[in-house]
Amino acid sequence: MPRSRTRLRALALPLCVAAPLGVVVVLNSLIRPRMAEALGGTRVSHFTNYRSADGWWGFTEPVRTSHPVATQFLGFSDGSIAMSGIAVAVLACAALLVSDRMRQPRARKRG
To answer: What is the Cα–Cα distance from 60 to 53, expressed in whole angstroms?
Structure first.
């Protein structure tokens, strides 16, 4: 395997984890609050224990009927968005490991 390909391969696993989680952080901290403020939403928080809270956005009925997709997306909790990002990261890592396992027998047969 060429040296540059080996370097890219070494970055694949951290990128499988960092990319989905980075997207989730940007969604929960920047994009969703700005979308909700533009639509006039109110933040709803649910405290799960003394250290953690989960939140989502609530909207009035006229806003929900005029923007059904956006309000549905903003109605998901921050925790559910984060868990979906973790699930994508796990699936990406599993796919990477399976592809490595499938590639190894071919390399052994050649050698």
So the answer is: 23
Residues 6+ apart with CB under 8 A from 6: none
Measured CA to CA, the distance from residue 46 to residue 2 in angstroms comes to 52
**Using CA atoms in the order 75, 78, 80, 86, what is the torsion angle rounded to 10 degrees?**
150
- Please give the Cα distance from 37 to 68 (Å, whole number): 16
Location of structure tokens 């909790």? 77
DSSP 92-107: HHHHHHHHHHHHHHHH
Q: What is the DSSP letter of 31?
A: I
CA distance 43 to 57: 5
Could you give the maximum distance between any two Cα atoms of the chain, in Å?
67
For tokens 């952080």, the residue is 25
Q: What is the pTM of this model?
A: 0.77
Q: Tens of pLDDT along 75-88? A: 999 999 999 999 99
Phi/psi for 54 (5° steps) reads -115, 145
